[in-house]
Amino acid sequence: MKLARRTAAVTAVTVVVSGSALALAGPASAAESVGPVATYNGACGTGYKVIDSADMENLGTTFLTYNKTTGENCVVTVRARAGAPVYMFASLSSPREGKATDNGRFTTYAGPVYLQARGQCVTWEGGITTYSTSATGHCG
Predict the structure, then answer these.
(1) Beta strand 131-132 with 109-116: parallel, antiparallel or unpaired?
(2) What are the tens digits of pLDDT across the range 95-131?
(3) Domain ranges (residues) in the chain
């Protein structure tokens, strides 16, 4: 009987210690993950989910989104802080579908740019002033 009580006590202590270790690990992991410089603004419309992004220093972020229902990709470049119009662009291309680009002087974002490319590899990029993302590929 004494042996059973000691085993139960040791098990209870182990669970408490393990639980505490997990609780401590959670915030540390969350602090390490850093999101994009800018927030996706939903410019592509309903049904589009962000599948990739690329920052340009602290100026903003280019987002690649995809609509699973329609098979369309969409790219938008969003500034971290709105301001006076600056040169910006958003671009999306595939070997079969060609290239679509939106560029000009904008206060908040360039795009959205759409490309129907279900099951194809696309190249996407964006830029703000003299900074730009490198051409980034995505297949799906």
Answers:
(1) unpaired
(2) 999 999 999 999 999 999 999 988 889 999 999 999 9
(3) 1-33, 48-139
Cα 16 from chain centre: 36
Count of C-beta atoms within a 10 Å radius of residue 133: 21
User: pTM value?
Assistant: 0.74
Model pLDDT for residues 33-73, shown as the tens digit of each residue: 466 889 999 999 999 999 999 999 899 999 999 999 999 99
pLDDT at position 138: 83
Cα–Cα distance measured from residue 42 to residue 44, given in angstroms and rounded to the nearest whole number: 6
C-alpha to C-alpha distance for 32 and 10, rounded to whole angstroms: 34
Nearest to 131 by CA among 81, 63, 74, 60: 60
Q: What is the DSSP string of 80-118?
A: SS--S-EEEEEEEEETTTEEEEEEEEESSEEEEEEEE-T
Third-level CATH fold of 48-139: Immunoglobulin-like (2.60.40)
Quick one: which H or E segment has residue 16? helix 2-32
Name the one residue in this structure whose structure tokens are 């989910």. 49
Among candidate residues 89, 80, 75, 102, the one with its CA nearest the CA of residue 132: 89
